[in-house]
Amino acid sequence: MVALVVVLWEVVVVAGRVNSVIVPGPAPVVGEFFSQPIFYLAPLGDTLATAAVGLVCGVCAGYAMAACGWYLPLLGGLLTPLALVLRSMPFVTLVPVLALVLGYGTTSALVICSVVCFFPTYVLVSTGMRTLPGGAEALFEVAGASRRVAFRRLVIPASLPSLATSIRISAATSILAALVAEYLMGTPGLASLLYVALDDLLVIKVWTICLVVVVVAIAVFVATTRLEEFVRTRWQ
């Protein structure tokens, strides 16, 4: 599929359907990357670090909040609207608040990234915890198991497939969120590199940065898909 996209990209450029100054072909873009890989890989490391920390924080917060909702259903009813409001809020509106509280920096970028990754985990894990295997929860009640034991031995294993799905959805998105957060907060990473390239009209560098992001996002999606398949095979 990736090879097909690259071939179509080359065909469109060679056919003159687009201006090669605006959309260069894949060969010069790939050549630009391999001519100075450290130039792109160093800021990529910053972006991946922001995405990884934001993903872990967002997933942990989403799982913890879903667990609280299972333990206390009334609290869960209150947390869901709060999560919806948080998810619906555009990044741009968060910037002044975060800058005022945390300042323009890495911490604010991590918070933005975490908020993006939080919602899929909360929704999917909450659903997984509410759709337990038929009669399993009643069986634990009949056996006299406490709610803590039921959570540890029934709810956590049953929620793992949903958790794996949320990680698959959030992982690739976390890279985009990290880019947006870095751009808004002015922190080091591929976004700052992209900003400079756009400002200087360095088209090939812009496309090279985009290509790096796409390749990394695909690799992350494939890896998390394999993780999800393993978890579903083991626990579903």
Question: What can you tell me about this protein's structure?
Answer:
The protein is mainly alpha-helical and 236 residues long. 84% of the residues lie in helices and 0% in strands. The chain has ten helices and no strands. The chain is elongated and about 70 Å long.
Q: Which key features would you list for this structure?
A:
10 helices, elongated, 236 residues, mainly alpha
Question: What's a concise summary of this model?
Answer:
With about 240 residues, the chain is mainly alpha-helical.
SSE blueprint and pairings:
Elements: H1 2-14, H2 26-35, H3 37-71, H4 73-88, H5 91-101, H6 106-130, H7 136-142, H8 147-185, H9 190-199, H10 203-235
Helix pairs in contact: 2-10, 3-4, 3-6, 3-8, 3-9, 4-6, 5-8, 6-8, 8-9, 8-10, 9-10
Contiguous runs where pLDDT drops below 50 for at least 5 residues: none
The secondary-structure element order is HHHHHHHHHH
For the termini, the CA-CA separation is 30 Å
Q: What Rg is obtained from the alpha carbons, in whole angstroms?
A: 22 Å
- Shape call: elongated
